């Protein structure tokens, strides 16, 4: 096996990895992508079939690419998969499929050793592009391990029609919680409860038939406190006083939380109308579980057929340290923004490429040398 040290190894051939490979090439830097899945878009294909982007198609494309006619203003899951696959084919990146990376360590000479089931690789720079939704997170509720009911993470939501006639408790008022409710609002379920601890900051997908997200580049350029107020005003115009719908008091700090805590802003596409009509009931946060019931913070006992936990994700332990803490080890695709992950990853990749291009004594290695 060769020990040639290559310029860049990218781990992950999803949205972030493909963007990184494209931007590296634009800066004259060769890159090899290691991808554990057998083809492009598998992680998207695993997500529920109703999945639709909350970001407008004009702001949700890979660099220099477009969606075909008919994709819709907010592309669906399968359209995104086709978009990723077409981009990879067009640019013919060096993608090694079926390669699962187990460790990335710095060698004495300053380069990195990447260990995988397919052997070892060596590179001067490593870009971790494994995504931010790789590890499902469940709160450590008292009694959860003894609960006999059906509990699943929002990542395993599945087909919304499977919930017809069933009672459902959705826990978590963030982006994934509203996504689940948006889809359940179109199904004739049994009672649906929505458990939240704080009032959400939420934007409508459309307001007076206008796609609100199209204003995001303008909002991105404004001071964060001003954007907080703009989002609060838009929310009030669209939904009125949320406390009248049973929500706890909110803080109107959506943009601040996005910047500081990396918490994406939920988007309504039917959930709020279902709450207003009584199809969905807002309830307090979950306190604990019993064998046959869920106990809320106000002592309410619920016995749903299904509990869907929409409390977020963690990143893979392989991602290691934050960006910049280890020279040559880069992380991207982890930061939500007002525009989209597509736009943000291109910005991140450009910053990384410029830094790599300016590295003293850098020498290019062709991918065929490996």
From TrEMBL:
Coiled coil: none annotated. The keyword Mitochondrion does not apply. The keyword Oxidoreductase applies. One of its GO terms (cellular component) is cytosol. One of its GO terms (molecular function) is flavin adenine dinucleotide binding. Keywords: Oxidoreductase. This is NAD(P)/FAD-dependent oxidoreductase. It comes from Ferranicluibacter rubi.
